[in-house]
Write a structure and sequence with these properties.
Elements (H helix, E strand, L loop, with lengths): L1 H7 L11 H18 L6 H15 L10 E5 L6 E4 L3 E5 H6 L2 H16 L2 H8 L4 H13 L6 H9 L5 H17 L6 H15 L14 H14 L10 E3 L4 E9 L2 E4 L10 E9 L5 E14 L4 E7 L13 E3 L11 E7 L6 E5 L8 E9 L6 E14 L4 E8 L13 E4 L8 E9 L4 E4 L5 H9 L3 E5 L9 H4 E9 L4 E8 L13 E4 L12
Parallel strand pairs: 1-3, 4-8
Antiparallel strand pairs: 2-3, 5-6, 5-10, 6-9, 7-8, 7-10, 8-9, 11-12, 11-16, 12-15, 13-14, 13-16, 14-15, 17-18, 17-22, 18-21, 19-20, 19-22, 20-21
Helix pairs in contact: 1-7, 2-8, 3-5, 5-9, 5-10, 9-11, 10-11
């Protein structure tokens, strides 16, 4: 509190008052907080590429004493930013959307922001932000970790750089590209994509450029700069790529149900796609992009189907006359069975009808047809997770299941193919969460373990991990764990109480269908809420 009070009355601090060591320490602490809230992607090849490109660019900085670090964070927004002390971040989607030269251009721009201390200058020049820099300076000098670094991170993340700083980051970024032997036009090419993104979203820029000068202005001075250097500037060519797989049109819309015509004969359960004109995933061509998935519920003339949106912001395009498409499908995959019917809401215990027999507490991944990452073709992917809890009669089981958020348009229940799950941590698995008491931070477990074993576990005070389902084979067990719990009651229900949460998680994030494991040995962690 003394630090906070002192900070409120402090005079404006010149940028040079922060030493290089303090700046590096600030960056390190911010990086730790960022990675707690938003982990890095698991694609090692992409992480190696961003580091290789970034390190080549960083050889041209004015302060070589700073070691640079490059991250790709999980996230579906278009974003890139840097923090003091040599840390540069890309969102996963921005990294995937940009081509190599464009990635390099944006990397160079963000490196310059960090190299020229733009973030620190912007904070120190803003009188209302003095409290944050006072706190972090005191904390850095004392090597303390108790301060609210997340709030300071918010200040850095939402900075509005001056136009002079932004132009310097653009122009010096071009020089860094030249020094490293890269295409200096990369940032300009990225600007074109950002402009297209803005046009598609009503003129609003993505986060990466929300505080930057208008994109057309930046394109103009970058073009002049490149021309003065004799750099060839590729013409901006946009192609229209029609989709040849149209089979009909929507003739009526009633909430989540549509009626449509079709040139192909379809059966109940057939999947078709509503598509409309838009930019491809890379913002390079105009083409038909998927808007919604539709499952035929009655055949005839016209057909009737239930619709699930892929792109919620394009819901207004599901109107009479909208195009219905049926692109080629890959060969169906074989599994242990196919879901014939379900009676439940996502995440609730319900009945499952299969075309094959399965044992209790068998775990499955549910596969369905979905679009690949760049929306160029249909593929089979693991859209969710199913645990069979008990038999309900011939061909019917009680189950719990979770749909992966990114595949909400293809939920577990719609004719999924079930594939047996291979979990290296199976021996420690106790069962799925089937009910949640948020006010008391309690969860109910459905388990095949004996009551005697569970009683011993409770009396011993054994801890259990609560984890998201293992639907991504590249995800480590440690990254799946969202918190820990201990057994409380074993009467009519097996109930656990949450004791800790992993950074970035809380009780509101716990879902039915999450897994509970016996905790492996680990170092001590802070209790939830501390």
């Amino acid at each position: 509190m003394a630090l906070l009070v002192t900070g409120l009355g402090a005079p404006v601090v010149p940028a040079h008052a922060i030493s290089l060591e303090e700046e590096i320490d600030i960056g390190r602490k911010l990086d730790a907080e960022i990675l707690k809230e938003t982990p890095q992607i698991s694609d090692r090849q992409a992480l190696k590429e961003i580091d290789d490109l970034g390190q080549r660019l960083a050889k041209g900085v004015t302060r070589p004493q700073i070691k640079y670090h490059f991250r790709i964070l999980r996230g579906d927004d278009l974003n890139a930013f840097s923090t003091p002390g040599g840390y540069v971040y890309f969102s996963e989607r921005l990294w995937n959307v940009l081509r190599r030269d464009e990635r390099i251009g944006v990397l160079a721009h963000e490196i310059v922001h960090s190299d020229r201390r733009h973030a620190l200058d912007a904070i120190l020049k803003a009188q209302r932000r003095q409290i944050w820099i006072s706190v972090i300076l005191a904390a850095a000098k004392a090597n303390r970790t108790w301060m609210d670094i997340a709030d300071f991170l918010h200040q850095v993340y939402t900075l509005k750089y001056s136009r002079g700083d932004e132009r310097q980051a653009d122009e010096v970024g071009v020089e860094l590209c030249e020094k490293a032997g890269f295409n200096p036009a990369g940032l300009l090419l990225a600007m074109r994509k950002i402009r297209r993104f803005q046009a598609e979203h009503g003129g609003e820029p993505p986060k990466i450029f929300s505080s930057h000068p208008p994109t057309p202005e930046r394109e103009q001075y970058l073009t002049k700069l490149l021309e003065s250097k004799g750099v060839p500037i590729p013409p901006e060519e946009v192609k229209e790529v029609p989709n040849p797989y149209k089979i009909g049109e929507v003739v009526a819309v009633d909430g989540q149900r549509i009626k449509f015509t079709s040139s192909k004969s379809l059966a109940e359960g057939s999947v078709v796609w509503l598509m409309g004109w838009g930019w491809d995933y890379y913002y390079e061509s105009r083409t038909q992009v998927p808007i919604a998935r539709a499952v035929v519920v009655s055949a005839g003339d016209p057909y009737a189907a239930v619709v699930r949106l892929i792109a919620p912001d394009r819901a207004n395009e599901i109107v009479k006359g909208a195009g219905v498409y049926m692109p080629p499908e890959p060969k169906p995959e074989n599994g242990v069975g196919r879901v014939k019917a379900t009676t439940r809401a996502d995440g609730d215990v319900g009945k499952l009808e299969l075309d094959s027999e399965v044992p209790r507490f068998q775990r499955f991944l549910a596969r369905q047809l979905v679009w690949n990452k760049d929306y160029s073709k249909l593929v089979y992917a693991d859209v969710g997770y199913v645990v069979v809890i008990s038999s309900r009669g011939p061909g019917q089981w009680e189950f719990i299941g979770v749909t992966r958020p990114e595949y909400s348009y293809a939920p577990v229940g719609d004719d999924s193919i079930l594939v047996k799950l291979a979990d290296p941590d199976q021996k420690r698995w106790y069962g799925p969460v089937v009910s949640i008491g948020r006010s008391g931070r309690t969860i109910e477990l459905a388990s095949s373990k004996s009551p005697e074993l569970l009683a011993r576990e409770r009396d011993a005070g054994k801890e259990f991990d609560v984890a998201v389902p293992p639907w991504d084979p590249n995800e480590s067990y440690e990254n799946r764990v969202i918190g820990t719990a201990v057994l409380r009651t074993l009467d009519k229900k097996v109930v656990l109480q949450m004791t800790r949460f992993a950074p970035g998680w809380d009780m509101s994030d716990v879902q039915n269908g999450f897994d509970i494991y016996e905790s492996p040995p680990r170092t001590a962690e802070k209790p939830a809420g501390e």
